[in-house]
């Protein structure tokens, strides 16, 4: 029984990057031996165990073969006879197919260290093409390591093209696709993810609405440079689409509600935000009410930031509309409803009076 540290922990240590999660591989052990040593089983697809003390995951060495369509169409075989090399060859990229033993000795049968040095994302074996999810994973790694100068190897990009053309990407569930997209969006250079998908023909299969939309990627790049949260990055990516297309993308990928709401509102209201300095008071009030700035001020702030990122993406040095709209929102929120209630107004009458007061407050703000 031999235990190895594998995958990302080895890769990132060699790159000098922080190591957060560690994957452990056990070679030469049976399920019964793991039980006897106090490891607790977890997972239904293949034997994975939790360490009795640390709670970290330890997987038995395994092989796999294609048995169906999509990323889940595999049959796994775990056995004490499976070697380290046999386990590593089923992995996606050479840089993820390295291992270290408990003494720190590096095992690199597929030359991942050389590809790290050459800044290449290269597949381990032709079996790479059997799993369509790997197209998204490679694109995500390209986005993560773009600041270090990594690129996708030509032969790997060709395999990704073959997968895209095969129709296998359609077998990916919305949940799996979104998980990769979400992680890619939060990388240092998320625009690279979509550029790689475009280069291998996967973008027309997964997100045809964004095909050749360079402005979307520039806005996304600005959002990443300014370290914006996920929902703002998503809104920036979709900002140029028609509302109907934004709805379609959101529903197809089952994006989180916060992402869906901000993306749709940004698509619907970006033009008004850009024209804010010239909007009449009534149009300004309607914009504020659409965002419900009285109960959900942060959503409006996120919208303003998304607008700002798109402006930066267009080469503008600033976005004065943001501060102007913040001031307008503050003026509208400052209107006190208590005097109207004390005057005995209720229901529709109260709503109309409050709207009139807020409109007047905005008119005063515009004149100031």
Automatic annotation (TrEMBL):
InterPro entries: CCA_bact (IPR012006), NT_sf (IPR043519), PolA_pol_head_dom (IPR002646), PolyA_RNA-bd (IPR032828), tRNA_CCA-adding_enzyme (IPR050124)
UniProt-listed Enzyme Commission number(s): 2.7.7.72
The protein, known as: CCA-adding enzyme
Domain tRNA nucleotidyltransferase/poly(A) polymerase RNA and SrmB- binding: 149-212
Binding residue positions for Mg(2+): 21, 23
GO MF: CCA tRNA nucleotidyltransferase activity; hydrolase activity
Coiled coil: none
Classification lineage: Bacteria, Pseudomonadati, Pseudomonadota, Gammaproteobacteria, Pseudomonadales
Cofactor: Mg(2+)
Top-level taxon of origin: Bacteria
Catalytic activity: a tRNA precursor + 2 CTP + ATP = a tRNA with a 3' CCA end + 3 diphosphate; a tRNA with a 3' CCA end + 2 CTP + ATP = a tRNA with a 3' CCACCA end + 3 diphosphate
Methyltransferase listed as a keyword: no
Alphabetically ordered keywords of this record: ATP-binding, Hydrolase, Magnesium, Metal-binding, Nucleotide-binding, Nucleotidyltransferase, RNA repair, RNA-binding, Transferase, tRNA processing
Function summary: Catalyzes the addition and repair of the essential 3'-terminal CCA sequence in tRNAs without using a nucleic acid template. Adds these three nucleotides in the order of C, C, and A to the tRNA nucleotide-73, using CTP and ATP as substrates and producing inorganic pyrophosphate. tRNA 3'-terminal CCA addition is required both for tRNA processing and repair. Also involved in tRNA surveillance by mediating tandem CCA addition to generate a CCACCA at the 3' terminus of unstable tRNAs. While stable tRNAs receive only 3'-terminal CCA, unstable tRNAs are marked with CCACCA and rapidly degraded.
All residue ranges annotated as the Poly A polymerase head domain in the record: 4-122
Binding site for CTP: 8, 11, 91, 137, 140
Matching Pfam families: PolyA_pol, PolyA_pol_RNAbd
Miscellaneous comment in the UniProt entry for this protein: A single active site specifically recognizes both ATP and CTP and is responsible for their addition.
PANTHER family: MULTIFUNCTIONAL CCA PROTEIN (PTHR47545)
Family according to the record: Belongs to the tRNA nucleotidyltransferase/poly(A) polymerase family. Bacterial CCA-adding enzyme type 2 subfamily.
Residues annotated for ATP binding in this entry: 8, 11, 91, 137, 140
């Amino acid at each position: 029984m031999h235990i190895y540290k594998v995958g990302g922990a080895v890769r990132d240590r060699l790159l000098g990057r922080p190591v957060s999660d560690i994957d452990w591989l056990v070679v030469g052990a049976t399920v019964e031996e793991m039980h006897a040593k106090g490891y607790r089983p977890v997972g239904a697809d293949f034997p994975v165990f939790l360490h009795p003390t640390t709670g970290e995951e330890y997987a038995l060495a395994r092989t796999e073969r294609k048995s169906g369509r999509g990323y889940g169409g595999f049959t796994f075989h775990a056995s004490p006879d499976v070697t380290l090399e046999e386990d590593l060859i089923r992995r996606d990229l050479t840089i993820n197919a390295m291992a270290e033993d408990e003494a720190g000795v590096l095992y690199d049968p597929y030359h991942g260290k050389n590809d790290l040095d050459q800044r290449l994302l290269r597949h381990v074996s032709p079996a790479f093409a059997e799993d369509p999810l790997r197209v998204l994973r490679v694109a995500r790694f390209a986005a993560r390591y773009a600041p270090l100068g990594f690129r996708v190897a030509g032969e790997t990009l060709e395999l990704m093209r073959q997968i895209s053309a095969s129709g296998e990407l359609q077998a990916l569930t919305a949940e799996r696709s979104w998980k990769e997209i979400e992680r890619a969006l939060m990388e240092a250079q998320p625009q690279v993810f979509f550029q790689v998908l475009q280069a291998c023909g996967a973008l027309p299969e997964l997100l045809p609405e964004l095909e050749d939309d360079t402005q979307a990627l520039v806005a996304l790049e600005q959002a990443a440079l300014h370290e914006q949260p996920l929902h703002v990055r998503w809104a920036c990516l979709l900002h140029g689409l028609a509302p109907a297309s934004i709805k379609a993308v959101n529903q197809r990928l089952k994006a989180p509600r916060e992402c869906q709401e901000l993306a749709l509102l940004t698509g619907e209201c970006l033009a008004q935000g850009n024209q804010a300095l010239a909007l009449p008071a009534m149009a300004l009030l309607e914009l504020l009410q659409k965002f419900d700035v009285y109960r959900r001020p942060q959503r409006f702030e996120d919208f303003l930031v998304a607008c700002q990122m798109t402006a930066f993406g267009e080469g503008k040095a600033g976005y004065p509309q943001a501060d102007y709209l913040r001031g307008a929102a503050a003026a509208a929120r400052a209107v006190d409803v208590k005097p109207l209630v004390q005057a005995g107004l209720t229901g529709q009458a109260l709503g109309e009076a409050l709207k009139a007061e807020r409109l007047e407050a905005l008119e005063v703000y515009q004149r100031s």
